[in-house]
Amino acid sequence: MTWKVNCSTNCTEPEMGGLETSLTKNLLDEQAQWKQFLVSNVSQDIDLHCYFICSGEQQLKTLNIGTSYLLEQVLLKLQPTRVAVGTWFTIECRVPAVEAFESLTLILLRGKETLHRKTFEKTPGPQEAVATYQRLAHRNDSHHNFSCRAELSLHSHSREVIFRISEPRMLDVYEPMQDNQMVIIITVVSVLLFLFVTSILLCFVLGQHWRQNRRGGETEAQRG
């Protein structure tokens, strides 16, 4: 599981600050009064410690990360998975029932491009979250992965967010047959069919003519 954690302070000019943890962390962004970290490989409940030095004194805040808030599954489905250019297809992201949270946001992505986002507000109990989006297929859609990013906010006055990304999905996009190509194919098939029928009729006529000539010859021979 991965967490996005924000450490902040009321000190206007902190001398330094950071996050203490034994887990893997990466600094995502920072300003004078806050720093945002990405904490990875969270597999159990753990405390994180945000600290800032202000006027020579250390300010310390402890954040608890609980695995009871795990986003166990983020499921993405494309329907249909093979479409012609210019036709509609549906992207659906589904997250099974999640325990108590402040807000849950589902973001539908094409590569890094955001196509759609839907936010679910706090509810009394667990709920399933579903976001759907319809889109016309473009030629280059087959060159991008589609995915869904779920962001779970646990507290209304905090930037503590955990997120999980679905398995990527690919869309198979093909070019529809052009009208002139269709006309050519129909014309060729019609000509071939006409030639086939004509050849059969010609064979039949020639056969009949041959039989008549043969019978006429046999009759004259008998008379002679």
TrEMBL record:
Its main location: membrane. Keywords: Cell adhesion, Disulfide bond, Glycoprotein, Immunoglobulin domain, Membrane, Repeat, Signal, Transmembrane, Transmembrane helix. SUPFAM superfamilies: Immunoglobulin. It is found in: Membrane. Coiled coil: none annotated. It is a single-pass type I membrane protein. It comes from the Eukaryota. Residues 3-65 form the Intercellular adhesion molecule N-terminal domain. The chain crosses the membrane at residues 182-206. Belongs to the immunoglobulin superfamily. ICAM family. This is Intercellular adhesion molecule 2 isoform X3. It comes from Equus przewalskii. The lineage of its organism: Eukaryota, Metazoa, Chordata, Craniata, Vertebrata.
